[in-house]
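Q: Please design a sequence for this.
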């Protein structure tokens, strides 16, 4: 990552120092924020980065029924936990530092850039602990959250099943009630990241399952806490629960993260002499998906941040390569005896670097802004500001997950291209970054799922209040840019046109007298176009934040903004045209024509 860019984003643009005026963050100063960033940088460089290649080369394997991973993973995770960073954004009552979420997001980016597959264990644990803090009982919080943030327990989210994929309405895992208030869980869960390992004392599985007699579909899902080892009343570990590793999935990237098939209640362990895995209900029966979305939405933004970090580190590595690798001569130089120049002297290489820059720095601004919204939702002084933050987060979460996953992956592709033949060899890191990042388009819901969520739900919820909040936010920036005048006003005019088209197209789609299948047929196109408008807004915000200086960082920001507006934002125009005419070409294609 670039510390210089992060500081610009945090302090010059997002004004993070103003947060210390709020009671929740009153114990902090810019010095404490910088100190935590320094610590994360050091740990990422010393404990995460050195075994990133090893994670890729030595995939997890099953030994005596347990998943075994490279030893560097545990060392890295223990170092983060010992530093108190897992609970950085949590309440002091559970040992948290009460850091602003936007600062914690910036801190975690260092670990994601250094070693995404090792950090995945921590990301899931933090998200699981946050779910329990919101939806768990006092007893569940006391028994599980503190060990999780101390790094002794790890967390997972268990949604999908072998026959289900992303269609959670088809989950069949069942939860049978017992007289003591617990449940017995039976079934299998698939694609469970971090589902088995020996990195800590215990694994806390958060499992969606059905209580017999509940309603069908997603409305009948309940959420359960199912530990690998039972926890006694005094906090000590008890006997093994009936959660068994049935197999590992071998992936093209994120290879250091175990990805598992788990069997619940079918492995022969019998806690208390009864069949089934012991589970504890979280929240109300049949409200499991509502609670699980707390973890899923946090993980979705975390996936977007991870995609950003991988794109960013690939950009920095290709930039360094382009500055040092000499090859060829500038266009127009005919003398074969002339010395070769650095790759960066070639216009097409600069184009690829500028493309990467506008993708990764735009994505970085997006995920940090989502962190800032979480701070406002949690601690803003008035209810209206908290409501506005919640509405904006609802609309921006699918974009923050999918836009970086698509375009920072393209940045990784360009990083390989700049390296030339070396780019697709394992001598350089960029090919691994590409493979790692390719998974993020699927993690926590594919682009198609995020698109259906955005167009089918988020922009029409509460009478379209979320989209209205986004429009008001962007128009306020447009007004500021018009007041500045000059180039800022020209950029504002382009953004105003794109925003107007987004709002008009959304209205056209949802007022058309057509079946839902037609309205949503091009939802992924809508997601991509909406993402470009949002990132164009991010870039105009950064452009305005550079007006008080003329150093190389600010000049580079302005140039990247120009590039995005000239070369990227116009790509949304034909997408809006397709959406406005409710095109059904893909939907109307017969399956026999393929």
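A: Design:
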């Amino acid at each position: 990552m670039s510390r210089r860019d992060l500081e610009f984003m945090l302090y010059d643009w997002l004004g993070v120092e103003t947060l210390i005026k709020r009671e929740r963050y009153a114990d902090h100063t810019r010095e404490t924020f910088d100190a935590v960033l320094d610590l994360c940088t050091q740990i990422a460089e010393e404990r995460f980065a050195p075994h990133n290649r090893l994670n890729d080369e030595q995939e997890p394997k099953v030994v005596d029924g347990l998943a075994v991973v490279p030893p560097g993973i545990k060392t890295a995770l223990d170092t983060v936990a010992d530093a108190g960073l897992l609970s950085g954004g949590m309440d002091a009552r559970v040992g948290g530092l009460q850091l602003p979420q936007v600062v914690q997001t910036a801190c975690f980016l260092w670990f994601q850039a250094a070693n995404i597959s090792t950090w995945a264990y921590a990301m899931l644990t933090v998200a699981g602990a946050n779910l329990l803090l919101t939806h768990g009982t006092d007893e569940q919080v006391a028994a599980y959250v503190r060990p999780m943030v101390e790094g002794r327990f790890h967390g997972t989210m268990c949604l999908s099943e072998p026959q289900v994929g992303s269609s959670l309405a088809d989950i069949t895992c069942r939860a049978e009630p017992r007289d003591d208030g617990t449940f017995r869980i039976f079934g299998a869960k698939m694609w469970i990241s971090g589902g088995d390992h020996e990195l800590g004392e215990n694994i806390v599985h958060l499992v969606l399952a059905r209580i017999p007699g509940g309603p069908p579909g997603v409305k009948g899902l309940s959420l359960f806490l199912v530990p690998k080892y039972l926890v006694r009343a005094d906090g000590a570990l008890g006997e093994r629960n009936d959660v068994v590793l049935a197999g590992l999935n071998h992936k093209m990237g994120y290879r250091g993260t175990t990805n598992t098939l788990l069997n619940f209640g079918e492995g022969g362990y019998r806690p208390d002499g009864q069949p089934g895995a012991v589970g504890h209900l979280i929240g109300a029966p049949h409200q499991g998906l509502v609670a699980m979305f707390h973890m899923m939405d946090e993980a979705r933004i975390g996936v977007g941040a991870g995609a950003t970090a991988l794109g960013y580190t690939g950009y920095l590595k290709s930039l360094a390569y382009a500055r040092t690798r000499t090859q060829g001569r500038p266009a127009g130089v005919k003398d074969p005896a002339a010395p070769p120049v650095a790759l960066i002297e070639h216009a097409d290489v600069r184009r690829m670097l500028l493309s990467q820059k506008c993708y990764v720095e735009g994505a970085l601004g997006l995920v940090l802004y989502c962190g800032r919204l979480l701070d406002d939702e949690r601690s803003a002084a008035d209810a209206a500001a908290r409501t506005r933050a919640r509405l904006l987060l609802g609309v921006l979460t699918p974009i923050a997950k999918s836009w970086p996953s698509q375009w920072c992956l393209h940045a990784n592709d360009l990083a390989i291209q700049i390296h030339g033949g070396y780019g697709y060899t394992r001598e350089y890191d960029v090919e691994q970054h590409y493979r790692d990042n390719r998974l993020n388009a699927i993690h926590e819901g594919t682009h198609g799922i995020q698109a259906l969520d955005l167009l089918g739900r988020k922009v029409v919820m509460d009478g379209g209040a979320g989209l209205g909040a986004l429009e008001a936010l962007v128009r306020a920036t447009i007004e500021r840019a018009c007041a500045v005048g000059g180039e800022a006003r020209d950029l504002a005019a382009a953004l105003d046109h794109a925003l107007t088209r987004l709002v008009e197209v959304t209205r056209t789609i949802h007022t058309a007298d057509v079946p839902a299948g037609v309205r949503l047929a091009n939802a992924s196109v809508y997601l991509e176009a909406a993402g470009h408008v949002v990132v164009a807004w991010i870039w105009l915000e950064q452009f305005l934040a550079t007006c008080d200086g003329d150093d190389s960082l600010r000049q580079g920001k302005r140039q990247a903004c120009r590039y995005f507006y000239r070369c990227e934002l116009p790509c949304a125009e034909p997408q809006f045209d397709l959406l406005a005419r409710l095109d059904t070409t893909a939907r109307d294609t017969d399956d026999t024509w393929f």
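Q: Thanks. Anything notable?
A: Residues 288-324 form the longest helix (37 residues). The chain has a mean pLDDT of 97.
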